[in-house]
UniProtKB/TrEMBL annotation:
SUPFAM superfamilies: Nucleotide cyclase. PROSITE patterns: GGDEF. InterPro entries: Diguanylate_Cyclase (IPR050469), GGDEF_dom (IPR000160), Nucleotide_cyclase (IPR029787), Rev_trsase/Diguanyl_cyclase (IPR043128). PANTHER family: DIGUANYLATE CYCLASE DGCM-RELATED, REGULATORY COMPONENTS OF SENSORY TRANSDUCTION SYSTEM. The chain crosses the membrane at residues 16-38, 44-66. SMART domains: GGDEF. This is diguanylate cyclase. Keywords: Membrane, Transmembrane, Transmembrane helix. Residues 110-242 form the GGDEF domain. It comes from Qipengyuania gelatinilytica. It comes from the Bacteria. NCBIfam families: GGDEF.
Length: 253
């Protein structure tokens, strides 16, 4: 309803602009011709009437055409923008959109929790049940993640079976609670292949918070934590623990 009202306003606005432009141009041309070729009052009235009526009549279809083309161009631009920032398979924001959002938080100096999620042994799903089943599994995980995070969070597919979650203003404890909820939901998911075969899924999650000193690799800590979760047996959550100053000093020595 709101979009229809907006389109109607654009039609009226565009038509009015075109009508005013055509009318002004037509009147100007008529007056110039009359200045060089004087005529009687009847012809002058007819010429001025035509100079007003014809542009007004013509402006309606022209206004509709211009507005429809403008709307079509706006829709195409929106589609291109969506395709440039979203993953084609899951329709989640893509890697570019995710890191752009992270960079904006860093520039603004705002806190956020980070989750780096990887589906466990996903190659075996593709090998055992086919890549079409793997694609459906990724879609199922994408839906689960999108539904299982706070409304203000950003969930993105970073590539392959890896996903990222940006939790604005979340503490490390809040990020851990969110990660555990997602892990348990995936473990309880009754996912089956299109042919009906049961395909148990699990995920490992690395957790960290945004740190300005980690630029330009803001997921470095979460990536270390994810590696630890995999090493510890998968289907688990791991929190990144930055090295203490003493540990860094010993390493440097």
């Amino acid at each position: 309803m709101a979009s229809d009202l907006l389109i109607n306003r654009r039609v009226v606005k565009n038509t009015a602009i075109i009508a005013a432009t055509l009318t002004a141009g037509s009147l100007l041309c008529t007056l110039i011709v009359m200045a060089f070729q004087p005529s009687n009052g009847e012809n002058i009235a007819l010429a001025l009437s035509l100079a007003l009526v014809i542009p007004l009549v013509c402006s309606i279809p022209v206004g509709l055409y211009v507005t429809s083309q403008g709307e079509r161009l706006a829709q195409l631009n929106a589609l291109l923008e969506h395709e440039a920032t979203h993953d084609a398979l899951t329709d989640l924001p893509n890697r570019r959109a995710f890191f752009d959002a992270v960079e904006r938080r860093l520039i603004a100096g705002k806190d956020a929790g980070l989750l780096l999620i990887d589906a466990d042994r996903f190659k075996s799903v593709n090998d055992s049940h086919g890549h079409h089943t793997g694609d459906e599994a990724l879609k199922a995980l994408a839906r689960l993640f999108a539904d299982g995070v706070p409304q203000e969070a950003l969930v993105a597919r970073l590539g392959g079976e890896e996903f990222g979650v940006l939790l604005p203003d979340a503490t490390l404890a809040e990020a851990r609670d969110c990660a555990e909820r997602l892990r348990k939901r995936v473990a309880a998911l009754d996912f089956r292949s299109p042919e009906g075969a049961l395909c148990p899924l699990s995920i490992s999650i690395g957790i960290d918070v945004l740190r300005n000193e980690d630029r330009p690799f803001p997921l470095k800590g979460a990536d270390h934590a994810l590696y630890a979760a995999k090493q510890d047996g998968r289907n688990r959550v791991s929190i990144y623990a930055p090295p203490t100053s003493s540990a860094r000093d010993e390493k440097a020595a």
